[in-house]
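Let us work through a complete example step by step.
Step 1: write down the sequence.
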Amino acid sequence: MTISADINLEKSKKATQAIFLVCGLGISSWAIMVPYAKYRLGLNDGSLGLLLLLLGAGAITMMPVTGVLIHKFGSRIVILIASMVVVLTLPLLLIMNSVPGMGAILFVFGSAIGTVDVAMNAHGVQVQNLYGKPIMSSLHGLFSVGGLLGSLGLGFLIKTGLSPLVAAISISLLLLLIATSQYRFLIKSAYEKQVIKNFSIVNNSPSGNKFSWLKMSIIYLGILCFAVFLSEGAMLDWSALFLKEDRGVNVALAGIGYAAFSVAMATMRLVGDKIVNRFNSKNVVVYGSLMAAAGLFLAVLTPWLITSLLGFILLGIGAANIVPVFFSEGGRLKDVPSSVAIPAISTFGYAGQLVGPATLGFIAHHTSLPIALGFTGFLLLLVGISFRLKN
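Step 2: predict the structure and record it as tokens.
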């Protein structure tokens, strides 16, 4: 492919990793804000779950639209603009004192996060196609690194004496620096379209139409993504509250659960490409799902903080490389072009991460938070069984 001579693949890969880092930092910074928002606004678990629904609604509204924007403008410019919206809205999540205002900002914040997520995965698939070997796990690894830094960083800044608003602004400035400095290394729109065209010709992929996302191959991957992303969303939105209310952890340190999960996930994703090559994608999904489910059950069925953290670590290890496998499979489906598959699978999958936790809030309100998290473990078991029986 002659176009590869005009692109510095190594710099493009690192720039893409940086954008995954930005997305992870942005959304995980919200994780430590959840208890603050709950107590500031006087919400119960059910009301908080309904509020979280608006964040997910924003993301899911924009995800299908992002596919159209990428086709017209390229993923590069879409990533930059959406990242700027994340930068502007993140500090507002710590100062909104009304439920309607908080809901509106969450919707906009979720829209921006959803847009960045689809665009960076679409961009990552094209970089991977140029490389000719798996790199999606390492890209998602930087997302998890961002999850670690965000969950610990904001809490640490607040613990040092900074006001929550100043701490959030500091995180936003870091996101701004990363996104603007790496923008020029992302693949330009004209090159990106040529990569997609060339890859489609080589793989006999169709041009696709607006109904391509209805194909069962996409719906199946999307449903599995929903369940796996739900477990990540549960850690993002509920782990801090679970550790505070059920394990007695101080609110400023409650992000340690999401941090433990993120460390495990980041570590496994950074070596995930080698793992997928060695053990094949099916085994990674099947055994990873079983380990992740076991981790969640351990976290909620034992009364000790140390075993809860161990459970979160097992969840991170098991689930780490499942989603990158699903995105890679979506990017090479023979009956659907990647420009349709990635936004569609993202929409299904991130509904689990961003809308699913709202459902867990209602389950927790009528039963308990440990039961709601245990339900997530049951869904992971179904993922493993389903993928084991596939073909």
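Step 3: interpret the result. The CA atoms of residues 292 and 315 lie 4 Å apart.
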